[in-house]
């Protein structure tokens, strides 16, 4: 594994401030808890920098995550970037995002995300108002200090957290907004349960086709994250994940892929180190430069993160 490792996708939450109504306290007991910077095990596993990603549809969460990133606790946890939520349909979304960027820790704001996976409208990403909101949020004014590359004031990235069947809409979105940099979270959530029968095989084939179409858009990169929770939580094997990782490497290439832990959600199926070790095995055939891209280079370039001095 390269010396520099960036975890491009993890979460933090304190449920009294950022409720997580999607957590089933019985089925998801492993994550039915609060997770703070002190709990994040990234540094213990040699991670140089992390990106914390929204988990609640609240402007207040973005402000809190940015403040944490600027604090001693955030620095100790090696948090270097924040992907915050924004209300895309708010006519003042650019001003609201601009306020995040000019507030405490605002220089660490690197991206925007909304819970597209929860939208029932299959045409949600085709809507003109949604696309206007994405363009406005990602181009909102930025400060010139903080966790960003010195002297640069980049547009924000838009993270796509979607279901596999929403991938065609993502490709249309990326084509319609070529000026926006999109990052696909969790490879679009392919179902990776080998016991799913013929129906699952057909779904995986559709995912492969749609991922290929999305990867044809040069303004899209993707995260190798969230895969263990798309397999059988209690009985997955590395080979269950291999088809998804191999396909992603084929269509995106290492320089458009990045590692993400999806901690603490990954705890439903694997601990932090277990997922890192598994991904390392799945990437064993890469060259040194290709491996460096997946483990850090792509995330640093796309999110414009400072180089590690650890």
How would you explain this protein's 3D organization?
With 310 residues, this protein is α/β, with parallel strands linked by helices. The chain has a single domain (6-302), classed as Metal-dependent hydrolases (TIM Barrel, Alpha-Beta Barrel), CATH 3.20.20.140. It is 35% helix and 12% strand. The protein is built from nine helices and eight strands. The chain has an eight-stranded parallel β-sheet with strand order 1-2-3-4-5-6-7-8. Helix 5 (167-176) runs parallel beside helix 6 (197-215). The chain is globular. The two termini are 16 Å apart. Residues 143-153 have low confidence and may be disordered.
Number of helices: 9
Number of strands: 8
Mean pLDDT: 93
Strand content: 5-15%
**SSE string, helices as H and strands as E:** EEHHEHEHEHEHEHEHH
Sequence-ordered SSE layout with sheet pairings:
Elements: E1 6-10, E2 49-53, H1 59-70, H2 72-76, E3 79-85, H3 93-102, E4 109-114, H4 128-138, E5 157-160, H5 167-176, E6 182-184, H6 197-215, E7 220-224, H7 238-252, E8 257-259, H8 272-282, H9 288-302
Parallel strand pairs: 1-2, 2-3, 3-4, 4-5, 5-6, 6-7, 7-8
Helix pairs in contact: 3-4, 5-6, 6-7, 7-8
């Amino acid at each position: 594994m390269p010396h520099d490792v960036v975890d491009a996708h993890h979460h933090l939450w304190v449920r009294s401030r950022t409720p997580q109504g999607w957590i089933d306290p019985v089925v998801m007991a492993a994550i039915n808890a609060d997770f703070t910077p002190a709990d994040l095990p990234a540094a213990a596993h040699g991670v140089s920098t992390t990106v914390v990603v929204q988990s609640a549809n609240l402007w207040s969460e973005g402000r809190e995550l940015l403040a944490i990133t600027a604090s001693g606790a955030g620095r100790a946890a090696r948090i270097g970037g924040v992907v915050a939520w924004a209300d895309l349909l708010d006519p003042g979304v650019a001003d609201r995002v601009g306020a995040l960027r000019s507030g405490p820790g605002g220089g660490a704001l690197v991206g925007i995300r909304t819970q597209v996976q929860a939208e029932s409208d299959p045409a949600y990403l085709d809507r003109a108002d949604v696309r206007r909101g994405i363009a406005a949020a990602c181009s909102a004014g930025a400060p010139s200090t903080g966790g960003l590359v010195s002297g640069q004031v980049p547009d924000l990235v838009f993270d796509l957290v979607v279901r596999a069947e929403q991938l065609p809409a993502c490709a249309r979105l990326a084509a319609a907004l070529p000026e926006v940099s999109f990052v696909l979270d969790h490879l679009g959530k392919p179902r990776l349960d080998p016991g799913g029968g013929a129906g699952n095989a057909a779904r995986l084939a559709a995912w492969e086709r749609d991922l290929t179409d999305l990867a044809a858009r040069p303004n899209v990169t993707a995260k190798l994250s969230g895969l263990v929770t798309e397999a059988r939580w209690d009985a997955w094997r590395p080979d269950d994940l291999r088809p998804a990782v191999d396909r992603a490497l084929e269509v995106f290439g290492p320089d458009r892929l990045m590692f993400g832990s999806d901690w603490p959600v990954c705890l439903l199926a694997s601990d932090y180190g277990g997922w890192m070790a598994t991904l390392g095995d799945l990437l064993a055939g890469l060259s040194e430069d290709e491996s460096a891209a997946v483990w850090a280079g792509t995330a640093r370039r796309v999110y414009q993160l400072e180089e590690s001095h650890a």
